[in-house]
Every structure is written in C-alpha cells, then in structure tokens.
Amino acid sequence: MRQKIRKGMLAYSAVLFPITFIFLSPYIIIVSARMGVISGSGVMFAFLFLSSIVGSRLYCGWLCPGGAVQDMAGYANSRPWFGRFKIRSKYIIWGIWFSVVVFLWIKNGPLEVHFFKMFNGGLAGLLVYAGVASIIYFFSLVTGKRGMCHSICWMAPFMVIGEKTADLLHIPRFRLKADSNACISCGQCDKKCPMSIGVQEMVRKGNMDHTECIACLECVDSCPKKVIRFGVGRQQKKNS
C-alpha cells in the first residue's frame, strides 16, 4: 500500500510538472539573479536544503516530478544504472552553476524576493517545458534507471549537503536502519532499488547511509524478513 501511495504521489507530481517546473528551473534562477531577484526556484532550492536536514531525500523519492518522468522511462529501459563514477559529474555541474548564481546575487544586490518571477504561459513556456521533460526522459532512457538523478541533477546536491550538515551537527534525520543478522541475502532490496544502490551490501555492513538513497522505502517494503526499517535518528557508526 505504501508504494502505491508513493507512486501515486509521483504520478500526480508529473501531472503538475508543466506548472511547477518553473520553480525547479536552474535557468530561471540565473536570469532572475541578473535582475537582482531571488525567484521561486531560488526559494524552492533553499527549502529543499533546509527540509533535507531532517527529511533527507524524501522529496526525491516521493514528490519529484523529474523522478516521476524517469520512472516512466524505466518501463522502457529497466536496466540498473551502473555508471557510479559519473556521480561526481552532478557535483561539478552544480558547483559551477551555483557559483554563478551566488556571484550574480552579490553583483546585483540588494536582492528582492519575487516568487512568481517569469511565471507565464504561452507557446514559449510550453516549448521550454517540453524540452526539459524530454531531456530528463531520454537521458534516463539511455543511461538506465534514474540516470539523470545520478549524473546531472542540479537539486540533489542541495539535499546531500543538507544530510551532511545534519550529520555534522548531530541532528537526527530520516534514515534507514537494518538488522544484518536477519538478512537471508535474497537480493530483493537490490532488485527493487530505483537508484541501483547495493542495498544488500549496505545491510551486511550494518550501515544504511548512502548519498544516492532517495528514501523511497522500496527496500523496506520488498524485504521478506523485514530486515530494513526506517525512522529518524543520528548517524550510525560504520562497522569494519
């Protein structure tokens, strides 16, 4: 039932994507920054960072329309994403992009907040949306499950930094937990994970923290022995 609710929420986020994508745009925030404005996307990215300090990456697994589009691509290509070395690419892209945004904010200050800046419809807006959705879909179609999340997502780093901030400050946050002794090595957790994470190996080591985990709880719900649980807590000590 929980996964039906989650997938239903993701599907609805995809339905709303033509409206909400403007508030998730990496381009609008730059254009607005040149005008001395913090746009809706800037407010949204700040919210994702702050919410992840306690909620980790629940947004990615339950509400992200880009994730929903990629899950649709997964029906055509369900191949696991194995290009783990490419995970660094999104942080490089994010670092350059965010540095430009901050530079423009400083250069064009004092800033004003305009949540609906550049929020308009028309043919141009529809074409931009179609282009963004197509890039997300076809990139995932070519690279495997949630390939865009791994390689080029500009929102994930905000939440990963939020998680690291919580751990650094010893703030309890949403995370997975596991009883490694109860694991029967059936591999269902690996099979169901939409992010192609080696969940079974994480269970064996007794450390369920992983920066690519989107808190979708597929591994929790697929485990026949209920080895994996979830809750709010502090960072676990790594076992050797």
Automatic annotation (TrEMBL):
Keywords from the UniProt entry: 4Fe-4S, Electron transport, Iron, Iron-sulfur, Membrane, Metal-binding, Transmembrane, Transmembrane helix, Transport
Presence of the UniProt keyword Cytoplasm in the record: no
One MF annotation (Gene Ontology) recorded for this entry: 4 iron, 4 sulfur cluster binding
Coiled-coil annotated spans: none
Residues annotated as transmembrane: 9-29, 89-106, 118-139
Highest taxon in the source lineage: Bacteria
GO cellular component, one term: plasma membrane
Pfam families given in the database record: Fer4_10 (PF13237), Fer4_5 (PF12801)
PROSITE patterns in alphabetical order: 4FE4S_FER_1 (PS00198), 4FE4S_FER_2 (PS51379)
4Fe-4S ferredoxin-type domain segment(s): 174-202, 204-233
Protein name per its UniProtKB record: 4Fe-4S binding protein
